[in-house]
From TrEMBL:
Domain of life: Bacteria
UniProt keyword annotation of Membrane present: yes
Pfam families for the chain: TPM_phosphatase (PF04536)
InterPro entries in UniProt: TPM_dom
Keyword tags: Membrane, Transmembrane, Transmembrane helix
TPM domain: residues covered: 124-203
Protein name: Membrane protein
Residue ranges crossing the lipid bilayer per the database entry: 42-67, 87-107
C-alpha cells in the first residue's frame, strides 16, 4: 500500500479542515510494520524442533529411515557407532525442522496467522504511544491532541487521545473513527479512510473543544509515513 504526494496532500487538507472547527489537534501516522516479529518465528521454529521427538520416537525412528536397510554387526563397538549415527541423524532432522519452520513463518500471511493477536495489539499500541510522545502530541497547550495510527502489516488501527480529551470524551466514542479507517484500509482505500477518520475526529473535538480566539496550529498537518 503506497501513499503518493497527492495522497498526503489530501490527508493534510482534511486535517486542516477538521482543525478549523476546534482547538484540538489531529496527528496521523502510518507504519508499514511495528515489528519484525523475529522472536515469534524463532519460538515456533524452536518449539517445532524440540517437539520432533514426540512425533519421531512413537513412530519408531530408526537410522534406516535415512540410510536404508543395512547389515548390522553384533558387536558392541558397532552398536555404539550406530547409536552415534542415529543421534547425529536426529540432530540433522531437528535442524532441518527448525530452518523449515523458521522460513515458513517469515512469509507475511503465515507470520500474521501464527502471531498471537494480543501480542500484535500490544506492539501496535506501544508503537503508537512512542509516536504520540516523539511528535509532541502530548504537549499541546490544552492537552487536546489526538493521534491516529495505522499499522499496515498488523492490519490494526490505534487511536490515542490526550489527557483533557479523556476527561470530557468517553473512550467508546472513538470506536466509530477506528472502525471507518479500518474498513477503508481493508478495502484498499487508505486515503479515503484517513479523510473520514479525521473528519469524524474533528466533529468529536469540535463538540467539546471549540476553536479559541487565537487558534494556532500546534502540530503539522501532514501524514507521517514510517
Amino acid at each position: 500500500m503506497r501513499f503518493t504526494d497527492e495522497d498526503r496532500t489530501r490527508v493534510a487538507a482534511a486535517i486542516a479542515s477538521a482543525e478549523a472547527g476546534t482547538s484540538g489537534e489531529i496527528f496521523c501516522v502510518v507504519s508499514r510494520g511495528v515489528s519484525s516479529y523475529m522472536d515469534v518465528s524463532l519460538a515456533w521454529a524452536a518449539g517445532a524442533a524440540l517437539l520432533a521427538p514426540t512425533v519421531l520416537i512413537p513412530l519408531g525412528f530408526d537410522l534406516s529411515w535415512l540410510v536404508g536397510d543395512a547389515w548390522e554387526a553384533a558387536h558392541a563397538s558397532a552398536q555404539s557407532a550406530s547409536v552415534g549415527q542415529a543421534l547425529a541423524a536426529y540432530a540433522l532432522i531437528q535442524a532441518a525442522i527448525f530452518v523449515g519452520v523458521f522460513l515458513l513463518t517469515r512469509l507475511p500471511p503465515i507470520l500474521r496467522w501464527v502471531t498471537p493477536r494480543g501480542l500484535r495489539r500490544a506492539r501496535v499500541r506501544k508503537a503508537a504511544l512512542q509516536q504520540f510522545l516523539a511528535h509532541g502530541v502530548h504537549v499541546t497547550r490544552e492537552r487536546t491532541g489526538v493521534l491516529i495510527f495505522a499499522a499496515l502489516k498488523e492490519h490494526q488501527v490505534e487511536l490515542i487521545a490526550d489527557e483533557l480529551i479523556h476527561q470530557k470524551v468517553d473512550e467508546g466514542v472513538w470506536a466509530e473513527t477506528v472502525a471507518v479507517l479500518t474498513r477503508e484500509l481493508k478495502a484498499g482505500r487508505p486515503v479515503a479512510g484517513f479523510q473520514a477518520a479525521v473528519e469524524r475526529c474533528g466533529q468529536i473535538l469540535a463538540a467539546h473543544f471549540p476553536p479559541r480566539a487565537t487558534n494556532p496550529n500546534e502540530l503539522p498537518d501532514h501524514l507521517i509515513l514510517l
